[in-house]
Amino acid sequence: MNTFFTVPLSLYKTEIYNTSMTLVQFDNESTQIKFKVYNNDVEIDYSQLKKVTLVTKQSSETPIVCQCDIETDHISYMLCYEETCCVGQVLGELNLYYNDSAKKSTQKFRYSVIPTLAIGIDPTKHEELPILQALISECIKLNTSIKTLEDAIKFAESTRIQNEEIRNANEQARVQAEANREDAESIRKASETLRNDAEVLRVNAESARVTAESNRATEENKRVTLYNQISNDYPLMADGIITTAYNNACPMINCVIETMTESTLTFGLFYNPIGYDYDITDITIISEGDAVGITSTNTCFLEILKNFETIVGYTFDDYEIFPSANAVKTFNLQNDGYNDTIVGGDLIHVRITNGVGVTTPKFTLQLNYKIKQSEVMP
Predict the structure, then answer these.
(1) Dihedral sign of CA atoms 203, 205, 208, 212 in order
(2) Chain segment 240-286, per-residue pLDDT in tens
(3) How far, in Å, CA of 46 to CA of 69, rounded?
(4) Please, are residues 52 and 112 in contact by the beta-carbon 8 Å criterion?
(5) How confident is the model at residue 115 (pLDDT cuts 50, 70, 90)?
(6) If you write DSSP's letter for every residue of 199-220 in order, what string do you get?
(7) 76: which residues sit within 8 A by CB, 6+ positions away?
(8) How far is the C-alpha of 358 from the C-alpha of 371, rounded, in Å?
(9) Would you state the CATH architecture of domain 238-373?
(10) Which CATH architecture has domain 3-116?
């Protein structure tokens, strides 16, 4: 009857595994060891092994190297004579040779060899043989139970490891989901901030639009008021000027200026609406009397103003004589190089400044003009 021992060994461990194996001296052919090898609590794949050797040694003996059998789910070895011939502690280890030529060694294990009960006596005839056989049967049952328990423990440990791996994976997924949630919350907050900023900009833009609309209405009121004022202050409007230009070969504006003594007089001549441009070609003075008191120092200064800036200015003194009664004086602006272009929106004024003791007669001021080519109607 063979005795089987199961020995679990681990790779890379340094501590010695003390087995429960106690062998009887010279009892070698009936004792078989089943080795289970683990790597980090996971049983190795025995199909990857090419060769396995068992090395055993007693303290004073030469190491013994024997080859083991590679089974599907374990490594088996039948003890030989040399490994049971000496009484005492035996130290052993497995050397694993893989198909890729790699070599690995298991942790060392220890078992004991005790002296035989009787030398030269047939144990089958001993009176205590039934007791011994009963003990052996009980040990086999215990070994079987132990093996069953060990297998259950290994299965439970394997299940625990799998559950732990699942728990770790779930925890990693939870951590990642939490990180994703935090990122999404940050994006939501940033989007909310942008939305609030956009709303502020919209409100500001709406306020600016309302303000601009109010300003436009105010300016429109000013424009209407100004237009009405211009209509009242400048009876010669550009519409009439343009109509005159189309209907007459020599379009002109006449303005009668009454007699005035030493003073300055400024008055509006006309307002040119937007959409019409023209050039003043010349200015003519038609006098109805004689000027009095004009000298080299006391003069009469005649100005044509565009938007209150002088575009034409003439000084009458003892050299440039003011026209006498029924005389005509013409000034050609185009030849003199004045800024004489009138555009839409311009205001035209006349200003006369008489010096000390100067009196000018009543006269007619005549402005002759020419519509710019781009403004001529077809």
Answers:
(1) negative
(2) 343 444 334 456 666 777 777 778 888 777 777 777 777 778 888 89
(3) 11
(4) no
(5) confident
(6) HHHHHHHHHHHHHHHHHHHHHH
(7) 32, 33, 34, 35, 68, 69
(8) 37
(9) Sandwich (2.60)
(10) Sandwich (2.60)
Nearest to 80 by CA among 26, 161, 16, 11: 26
DSSP helix/strand/coil, 292: strand
Handedness of CA 296, 302, 306, 309 (dihedral sign): positive
Measure Cα distances from 148 to 18, 144, 154 in Å.
20, 6, 10
| Cβ contacts of 132 within 8 Å, gap of 6 or more | 123, 126
Q: CA-CA distance, 279 to 372, in Å (whole number)?
A: 7
Asked if 359 contacts 289 with a C-beta cutoff of 8 angstroms, the reply is: no
State the DSSP string of 311-371: EEEEEESSSSPPP-TT-EEEEEHHHHT---EE-TT-EEEEEEEE-TT-BB--EEEEEEEEE
Domain ranges of the chain: 3-116, 126-233, 238-373
CA atoms within 13 A of residue 152's CA, in its CB half-sphere: 6
Please tell me if the domain spanning 3-116 has the same topology as the one spanning 238-373.
no
Cα angle: 103, vertex 105, 110; to 5 degrees: 155
Q: Which residue has the tokens 């005159």?
A: 244
Residue 207's pLDDT band (cuts 50, 70, 90): very high
The model's confidence at residue 169, banded by pLDDT at 50, 70 and 90, is very high
